[in-house]
Amino acid sequence: xxxxxxxxxxxxxxxxxxxxxxxxxxxxxxxxxxxxxxxxxxxxxxxxxxxxxxxxxxxxxxxxxxxxxxxxxxxxxxxxxxxxxxxxxxxxxxxxxxxxxxxxxxxxxxxxxxxxxx
Length: 118
Description:
Helices cover 50% and strands 13% of the residues. It is α+β, with helices and mostly antiparallel strands. It has two domains: 2-41, YefM-like domain (YefM-like fold, 3-Layer(aba) Sandwich), CATH 3.40.1620.10; 54-100, no CATH class. Mean pLDDT is 78; it is low at 99-118.
């Protein structure tokens, strides 16, 4: 991590943004940390950063981890096995229950009836 004075960053921000694409730049004010400049090489980096710092996403990750600690969940190997056999795609109720109802095939979803024309 580079440590740069605010006065230097203000004079040449574009150079420090390019530097921040490779490593974080600690900006100091009067020798004390004041902020961090984080650069992104492309839009995917920006998206990843936003996603990783979204409080809603972090709350869901925490909830999922707590659920796993409590013994609720499905091992990834079980999901791979079921998906590889095509069970989830067939809409089997038992398989869907094993997967927590997360995967449903279009055949298992009943179409809605329109109320128009009645």
